[in-house]
Structures are given as C-alpha cells and as structure tokens.
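[recover] target loaded
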C-alpha cells in the first residue's frame, strides 16, 4: 500500500488553491502561512469570488478576511462578500423561525420529525448559524406520515411544487423527498422519507429517532440526527453530488472535530454498505483541508477504492460543476452517471441494474394502461424502452 498517496490536483487553478489555503486554516484568523505573495501576481480576484460563491463558503471566508484586515484583498470583493454574508445571516434567521414553527406544528399532530440540515446543522458544526449557507429546510418524517404531513403543510399554506412521477408506487424507493413552497414566507421545504434515493440500504426512521439529538438554538424542541448518523448522511449526500460544492467537504472537516465514536461510525457504515463512501469523504478532507483524524478513522483513508473515488471527485471540484442547473453539459452528465455507479456497493449495483426492469413513468406515457392492468408493464418494459429509443434515434436523423 502506498503510504505517500496524494490526490492529483495539478489542474487546480491558482485561485482554487488559494481558496483551499483559507479553508484549511482552521480556527486561525492570522495570516495564512502557506500563502506566498508571489501567488497574488496576476491573481484573478473575480474568478476567486465566483469560486467562493459557487462553493457556498463565503460566510467563513468573509469572517476570516474581515479579521485579518489584509490590504491586498480588493475592496470590491470584500463589499460583495459582506453583502452575501449579511443576506445569508438574515436568511438563516428566517429559516430558524420557520423551522421551529414547523417542528412545533408536527409535534402538535404527533408527527415525529428530524431536521437534516439548515440552521441546526450550521449551529452544530460551526457554532453560529450565520457561518453556513442554506436555501431551504430538509425534514425527515416516517413514510407512513406523509399524507398527514401533506395535509398539515397545505393548511399552513405550503404548495407542493415538485414531486416525482410514479407508477406502481416506485416513488417509495426510487425517490426520497417532495418539495413544498410557501409563497408569502418565501420558504422552500423538502419533506424526506428517506435519507437518499434508492435502491440503497439506510437506517430506518425509528433507528435514527432513537439516536436523535435536541437542538438548543430554538425555544421549542427541534430534533436532528445523532453525530454518527449525521456524518453518514453528509458523506453520502456530498458523494452523490460529486463534492461539487466545497461547503459539503468543510462540513465533514467540522464534524470530524466532534469526537465521533469511530467504532460506532464504522459499524454503521459497514451495515449499510457505505464504508467506502465515508472513506472517500475522509480522504478528500484530509488531503484538501488537512483534517486531522483519529487513528481508527485514518486507517480508512488507506484503502485503494476510497482513494480512487476521491480522485474521481476532483473532476467536479476543479471546474465548478453545477449539477442543479439544466441543462447539465453532456460530458458532465455522462461522467456523473459513471461516478454514481462507482459509488454503489456490489449489491446495490445488482439492485440498480434489476431496477431497470421495474416500470417507469415513461412507460405509462408511451402506453397508457388502466391501473388494474399496470402489472403488464413488467413484461412490456423492454419493448417500450426499445420503442422510445428507436423513436428518439429516428427523430435525431
């Protein structure tokens, strides 16, 4: 085993390398020791700013730069960072209030809920809700309570704006959340019944609930994931998105500092066939952010698969990939499909391939059948897929 492994980051721009220097300077607000002033010659500050905003790390960067009071940072960049920092602080306060209100409403209806990210995550990892960004609220509830949650949110004037098309209840395992929006409050809420899309192993809601923690940033109870569960969720979420935003990697750096129970974490990761994904996160954060790991976790970074997966994520980081903006470039889309497949355990790969035989909503569009006859989509699926493919190829010529 190569003990001197280093990620290949030769294609990182000067601006991205400087951003990493700031991010890995930890709690220190003094001069960044590795920053050679020669690096600032022909430095593209506009590109640096775009990187900072794209990776959603501007709150922490602004705090550090403001404390350092460095004369070599252009005033227009500090002004822009200040504006985004203040806007984010107000946004997080706004989300905190709504998060507390929703948690209270769920509790009143005897609906258990776990907040996955948002203000509770910012407070838990950074000690200050203004130091992490969040666009919406992600709340996990038991799948059996989804109808009651839908009714409750409707009464609270939330509108369902994004939900998966489905056939034969495939939404239960193929998807993992539904999106709601409150027009007056301008708040988006994602209601999860799984931590991530299937088919994949993950802990049940009851298991997560038993290991829950209670947030202290609100006067009313708000529950969120236990430390080891939170690490697993953040690692899986970051990996699924190719670590295309460094904010997710900085989250890993922060949670590792919380004295995770390594034996419990490793046991949970193994149980859900996710050890290689957790190890990928650790390789990335130790290599790129110089995160210090306890020996029990550090050993995970020596695995060849974890290192290979970590190198695969460099593709996303070096070129500011945005997987949420359509259309995603074709080369990125193809690479991402391969990367997602590489993240799966062998058993999940088998399930994933078999899932193609399960009907898709596109089959219903191709050949509408009444519900009592939709079981016929199983034997018909290969023919319907071939028909759509042939039709698409004909249209392209």
């Amino acid at each position: 085993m190569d003990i001197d492994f280093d990620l290949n980051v030769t294609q990182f721009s000067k601006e991205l390398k400087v951003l990493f220097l700031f991010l890995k300077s930890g709690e220190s607000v003094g001069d960044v020791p590795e920053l050679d002033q020669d690096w600032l010659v022909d430095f593209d500050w506009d590109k640096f700013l775009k990187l900072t905003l794209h990776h959603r790390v501007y709150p922490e960067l602004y705090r550090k730069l403001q404390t350092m009071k460095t004369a070599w940072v252009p005033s227009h960049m500090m002004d822009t960072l200040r504006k985004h920092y203040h806007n984010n602080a107000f946004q997080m306060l706004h989300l905190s209030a709504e998060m507390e209100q929703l948690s209270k409403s769920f509790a009143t209806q005897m609906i258990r809920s776990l907040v996955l990210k948002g203000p509770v995550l910012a407070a838990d990892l950074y000690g200050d809700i203004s130091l992490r960004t969040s666009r919406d609220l992600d709340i996990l509830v038991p799948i059996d309570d989804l109808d009651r949650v839908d009714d409750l949110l409707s009464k609270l004037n939330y509108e369902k704006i994004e939900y998966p098309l489905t056939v034969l209840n495939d939404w239960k395992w193929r998807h993992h959340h539904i999106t709601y929006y409150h027009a007056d409050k301008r708040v988006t809420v994602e209601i999860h019944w799984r931590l991530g899309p299937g088919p994949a192993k993950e802990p049940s809601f009851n298991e997560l609930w038993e290991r829950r923690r209670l947030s202290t940033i609100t006067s009313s109870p708000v529950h969120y994931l236990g430390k080891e569960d939170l690490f697993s969720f953040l690692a899986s979420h970051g990996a699924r998105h190719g670590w295309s935003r460094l904010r997710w990697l900085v989250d890993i750096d922060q949670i590792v500092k919380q004295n995770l129970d390594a034996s419990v974490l490793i046991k949970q990761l193994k149980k859900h066939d996710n050890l290689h994904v957790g190890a990928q996160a650790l390789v990335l954060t130790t290599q790129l952010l110089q995160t210090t790991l306890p020996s029990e976790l550090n050993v995970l970074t020596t695995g060849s698969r974890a290192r290979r997966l970590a190198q695969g994520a460099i593709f996303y980081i070096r070129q500011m990939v945005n997987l949420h903006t359509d259309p995603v470039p074709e080369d990125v889309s193809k690479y991402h499909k391969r990367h997602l497949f590489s993240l799966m355990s062998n058993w999940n790969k088998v399930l994933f391939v078999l899932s193609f035989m399960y009907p898709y909503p596109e089959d219903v569009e191709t050949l509408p059948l009444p519900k009592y006859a939709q079981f016929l989509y199983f034997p018909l699926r290969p023919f319907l897929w071939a028909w759509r493919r042939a039709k698409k190829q004909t249209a392209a010529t």
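[recover] notes: The chain has a mean pLDDT of 91.
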